[in-house]
Amino acid sequence: MRWGLAILLFATVFAPWFATAAEQQPAPSAAEIADAQRRVRDAFKEELSQRATPEARLAAAYKLLKDGLATEGDGAVQFVMLGEAADLAAQAGDADLALRANCETAARFKGQSAPAMWVETLRAVGKVPVARGAAGEKKAEALGRLCLVLAEAAAAQDDVASADELLKMAARLAAKSPPLAAAAAEANKTLREFKAELQKSKAALARLTAAPGDAASNGTLGRFYCLWKGQWRDGLLMLSKGTDPLLKDLAARDLKSPEGEAARALADAYWLLSEKHAGTARANLRGRSARWYAAALPTLKGLEKVTAEKRMVSAASAGPALAVSEAVSLGDASYRRYDLPVSWHLAKGICEQLRGRLVCIKSAEAQATVEKLLNHQNIWIGASDEAAEGQWKWVDESPLSYDRWRRGRPDNADRKEHWAILAGADDDEHWEDVPYEPSRYGFICEWPRGADDK
User: Fold this and answer.
1) CA 130 – CA 134 distance, rounded (Å)
2) Structural domains in the chain?
3) 433 DSSP β-pair partners
4) Cβ atoms of residues 119 and 165 within 8 Å
5) pLDDT tens, residue by residue, 60-84
6) Predicted confidence (pLDDT) per residue in 337-375, tens digit
7) pTM exceeding 0.85
8) For residues 441 and 380, what is the distance between their CA atoms, to the nearest angstrom?
């Protein structure tokens, strides 16, 4: 089972898309944090004094997170409240809430690494006693699967140190799960290879600073961006200046944005080259091949069209982790289902850290594509009316111009149902509104294609 740094495959076919939950602000200074801690602890004296039990710590974490997200005009106080919420949730053993607070902090403050915070959070969660027997083993496996996906996100941000720590955690948690242990071992192998390529790319970048026209350095860095990172927009021009004749030719043809027969020929060439590679490089080359098959598809007929479609599906299905399904691609986006039972907010945060978004279904065609990933399961989609009752919006703030609500929904039962799922468990694939607690579902991340995809 290939880990392959899943996000690299998607960046191959679709230009990186990433939006934070709010406009980022500078992180507060140490002095500002100390002053804010004093004020927060004074304002929440009652909640913070009653944290002798996990339940009390969890209640305080929810309160601090909710109020922290609503805080405006005082970045230091918001920073501290989100941090306190993460710490309390971790001490209560609630990884979901703690990791969500980490994601919110990274989204709102510059220079705050979500992967680094995840490592500290999960270390704290690991110190909380868990039930013995089957229940404890199940929880450990779920946490290990989560570590794999978080490591994927860390590697996508070149945070090798955090990815390494998260994979070590996954390996420790896999003691009773051979499939998880195997996935963690393979992911670790890929990460070591990625780290070596990253070091080569840094050396090449240093040489290019002094000699921008150096062909070998251009080729090394372009190869890293395209074949390892999947960042074709960044790497193609450098590949075209490199020393590998085949990659130079492919990059030059790619930069011309071919159509029709030329696009199909380029897709065939990328596919043929992928056969000579393995792992991440093969996945990224096949992803790029699929990008040009998609461009050529309207002009293809017969066996050529069948071959192109089969290869597009095969490329989208090449992917990484135990916690992930196969992927499918539509004309303007690519999707993958993550089989992790998490809250809506953590699903949203993970997708954003993977440089994507929680899926936004804006057409019947997109609905049909996403349905292929359900596997008889309910999954989160990126719609919510949490901000204003009855005003459902996608995570990109656009209103719902298309919907597939079940009859009578949304109904906001008990005035608590503000988040949407696609109900695949009932085989009719309608949407339903559900409450925050105790709802925990898998989710689908989406990578829309950028308008300037290269």
Assistant:
1) 11
2) 196-317 (no CATH), 324-448 (3.10.100.10)
3) 420
4) yes
5) 999 999 999 999 899 999 999 999 9
6) 888 899 999 999 999 998 889 999 999 988 988 887 787
7) no
8) 6
